[in-house]
């Protein structure tokens, strides 16, 4: 990992990715344009997961609850309290932060397999709560945000989040902010401590670091990013349902990150995009598309065990962060 | 002169085994102290109690007049107790530079890339690893990994540096340069050393503490220890 000596290349690469996604807004046909907007928001979810799993080495199986905390935090305040888009988004993020703080304090008393199980159980509790309070959440069926509520007015500027181009740009903005934030964290002193905890927690402790406090910070940052993705999903696509709180949505970010390359800044977007299109293309040909997805995953694990970008970094581009 | 660190009636039991059994110990600032004793004498457990990796069953540890018995390990490191592991415990996936940057950045207040870099390079230079800064720690030779371990301890700017069998597995040449390094470290830190190599102990230590079965058997200068009949029976006789 020789990021230290090539910071310029790193910044250029990330700027190029963001510029490329910006350009695609004007080129892509309608269908793929919509797909990419959605993938960018889900990639934010994956990036949040990557902070905890990839960099800090904590495997959570409950991240659906952070995504859903943002989803419901934004969705419920907008639909029931009549809050605006910005306030709703903030409510989603605050919900995620508080939840992550509480869950972190409790779950970090465990490690390894126990940590996986505890996070999964908490996520299950969260899912059941969304069903229990069906009066507001409408449970499985979910609810839709009214079209006229999904507008942002800034003086004379009016943004309509149901308009595809606005939606794409909003998704790109969030994606870019989180991508650069991830890069900053990874290159910071704190990022180095997180990697050290992943590699050898006992040694890190004996260098004078409070590893519990550092891991808790990682859980909260991760939870906030995932909640931001959830809140954006609610506001941009207008649908809030308990499906997003199921265990499936805890497994998906793990898959995306593993595919793209754990502990790489760009791995989450690569993995999410790849997975989305594998499912999309194969389901066009056969109803047994999950079979093909499974085979694709097995091939990937065999030939790219560290994920796509993880393997690229190992073999070719050593400076990839 | 008051001791830098003292322990009073320090005990650690593992079930029925008394690994450390009522140790009263004191180390003066600036001293190089070696702890020797046969395998299973409780040396590693004893220094683990001092650095906080293991909680004591009873007794007291005092650093500079402050009771640190109940402090967590990371707080003790912040107060100047650094421990280098007996089994090499570097971050093998990270570069040598990043390994040393971790302790250095902890001692820096505020953010300054320049000072971080200077601190890292100075610790690497003192241990002779400067030209290997970008090598992955896991790819370094065993001797160099031991030195990296020492560099990490040094980078903490400790007041008490605990070295647990630092020369184990090193070649004669490497041992020679290690002893030079240890003397240099002792100019601004106190060194507590667990060591099996008698030549290193005799040449390096100001004083020697001999442990056996969890207790302190004898303590004194190298000459006194060499002349002590009880020590010879318990330890030196079997080794030499």
From TrEMBL, chain A:
Transmembrane listed as a keyword: yes
GO molecular function: branched-chain amino acid transmembrane transporter activity
One matching Pfam family: BPD_transp_2
Subcellular location field: Cell membrane
Its membrane topology: Multi-pass membrane protein
Matching CDD domains: TM_PBP1_LivM_like (cd06581)
Naturally occurring in which organism (per UniProt): Mesorhizobium alhagi CCNWXJ12-2
Superkingdom of the source species: Bacteria
Lineage of source species: Bacteria, Pseudomonadati, Pseudomonadota, Alphaproteobacteria, Hyphomicrobiales
Single GO cellular component term: plasma membrane
Family matches, as InterPro entries: ABC_transp_permease, LivM-like
Transmembrane segments: 12-29, 35-52, 89-108, 115-134, 168-195, 216-242, 254-279, 286-304
The protein's name: Inner-membrane translocator
Main location: membrane
Keyword Secreted part of the UniProt annotation: no
Keyword entries, A-Z: Cell membrane, Membrane, Transmembrane, Transmembrane helix
From TrEMBL, chain B:
Keywords: ATP-binding, Nucleotide-binding, Transport
GO CC annotations, alphabetized: plasma membrane
PANTHER family: CONSERVED COMPONENT OF ABC TRANSPORTER FOR NATURAL AMINO ACIDS (PTHR45772:SF9), CONSERVED COMPONENT OF ABC TRANSPORTER FOR NATURAL AMINO ACIDS-RELATED (PTHR45772)
Classification via SUPFAM superfamilies: P-loop containing nucleoside triphosphate hydrolases (SSF52540)
Protein name: ABC transporter
SMART domains xref list: AAA
One Pfam family matching this protein: ABC_tran
Classification via InterPro entries: AAA+_ATPase (IPR003593), ABC_AA/LPS_Transport (IPR051120), ABC_transporter-like_ATP-bd (IPR003439), BCA_ABC_TP_C (IPR032823), P-loop_NTPase (IPR027417)
GO terms of molecular function: ATP binding; ATP hydrolysis activity
UniProt-listed Gene3D superfamilies: P-loop containing nucleotide triphosphate hydrolases
Residues covered by the ABC transporter domain: 5-238
